[in-house]
Amino acid sequence: MSQDPMTLEYDGPVAILSNNRPEKHNAANDAMDLRLWQCLEELHLRTDLRAIIWRGNGKSFSSGRDTTELGVRTEDLSDLEFIERGHKGAQQFFTMPCPIIVALKGWVIGGSFERALLCDMRIAGESVRMSLPEVRHGVVPDSGGTARLFQMAGHGLVADLALTGRSMDAEEALRHGVVSRVVPDDELDAAALEIAHSVSKIPPFTLMMFRRTLARMAHPLVQKSMQEEALTQSLVFASHDYAEMKAARSQEREPKYRGR
After folding, report:
1. pTM, to two decimals
2. Which CATH number fits domain 6-204: 2.60.40.2660, 3.90.226.10, 3.40.50.1980, 3.40.50.2300?
3. Tens digits of per-residue pLDDT, 105-121?
4. What is the rounded distance in angstroms from the CA atom of residue 165 to the CA atom of residue 210?
């Protein structure tokens, strides 16, 4: 029997959601995405829940999309339909009845980095390395993270990370406000649990009203960005330049781009 790509456990009023493909550094595939959306649906129904921790088993939170499964689809969906289905699942982060605290370590790459940015709070282990490598692979970030990172750190950092594909370490992420604290890796899970249980003691209505206020400021830009990203990415997938980049790489030659 294959292992569950995402596990869900409870510690009293705290849910612990864990990426569970440690042998792949928790690289995300369709099965992992589907299980994530299922878990979020379950968490929406828990009236006793006060906080959620999202973490990764093994050395990394997630190394991004599993490149061995790129382009493999078991359903007859257009690019736009596929992207918008992922957006529908991800927007459950916005409607969750309690805060999500993300515990980041090791690789935090691409769409997995973007999804972590959609949550309420991020803490980092000292090993964390975050990146947005999509543009270097001929596509664009399409999970709402560009807008959220823009809100946190501004145009300059978004452009730097996306256009260079470089990694950002824990201390730089802390300086930019991308994470709120950094701890040693071996203390990361305990720190996340301590924060979650501290949050769980806040009166539920007070917590709900605070998060409502914060959401009204934060979410509209991200949701608008997602709509734009779905169309943009669909055009990229259908472009001559994207096809030429893939062909050039497979043929080990220089690409001849046409800007369309």
Report:
1. 0.94
2. 3.90.226.10
3. 999 999 999 999 999 99
4. 35
